[in-house]
Amino acid sequence: MTGYGKAEIVSCQRKYLIEIRTLNSKQADLNIKIPNTLKEREPEIRNELITQLQRGKIELYITLEGVNDELITQFNETAIVNYYRQLTHIAEKNNIPLPVDILHSIIRIPDALKPECQEVDEYELQILFDGIAQAIRQVNNFRQQEGMSLMEDILTRIHLIESYLTEIEKFESQRMDNIKNRLRQSLTEYVGENIIDQNRFEQELIYYLEKMDITEEKVRLRNHCLYFVATINEGDMVGKKLGFIAQEIGREINTVGSKANHAEMQQIVIRMKDELEKIKEQLLNIL
């Protein structure tokens, strides 16, 4: 599910800007961009994100800013001297004149500057994780709001499927009469009315109509819809379960369509399938 969260924390003359974005995905797909000072803690950060957010395309950005640049940054004298000596040696060896502003170029190298508070201690790490937790709560709140909208939409479509099933029932008597008349007409044309064994015809007709009967499918379809509604109201982590129930609903709808043998009923079945496909698309957004 989509979500967004943001937090700001200050520690050791540094300010961390934390942003988390999530998009729909069946698996947990993490993309993390954090300062080098936190690289050793990346596994802990990843574990926290997966534990709290479960799945989705998750993007975490942690930006480090100085509260006071004069206090937070200083020159890395050792690195600057080493760079200068190496450049001087290369220039002399290859008879290349050094530019006048060589020092200005050296201090632009990333390693030439270093934070005054380089190490991240446990206290600062705890503050950082508090900030991440704050951003995660915002993401989950965003997800919950979206989830409520999705639930209303999905339940509306489930109720539509139930109403379409009621519409199908209106054509059942007509459908059976049409089947009987069509079979009798075909038999009369090819065999003749006087030759037909009425008792045998009635027996065969009953057997055929039983195969075309959709009573069981209707009962199972209604039960699946009721179970779907009950499951969606259970709470967290029901996405996969709802997906399984949706498959069963689809199976019953397909069976009704294959047995319908009636134009209006088949049109209703198509509408039921359309609603079910929209439900399946929405279920991809549910944990």
Report what the structure shows.
This protein has 287 residues and is of the alpha+beta class. It has three domains: 87 residues, 2-Layer Sandwich (Ribosomal Protein S5, domain 2); 44 residues, no CATH class; 136 residues, Four Helix Bundle (Hemerythrin (Met), subunit A). Helices cover 63% and strands 15% of the residues. The chain is built from ten helices and six strands; from the N terminus they run βββαβαβααβαααααα. The strands form two sheets. A four-stranded mixed β-sheet has the order 1-2-4-3. Strands 5-6 form a two-stranded antiparallel sheet. Strand 3, helix 1 and strand 4 form a beta-alpha-beta unit. Helix 1 packs parallel to helix 5 and helix 8 runs antiparallel to helix 9. The protein is elongated, with a radius of gyration of 35 Å. The relative contact order is 0.12.
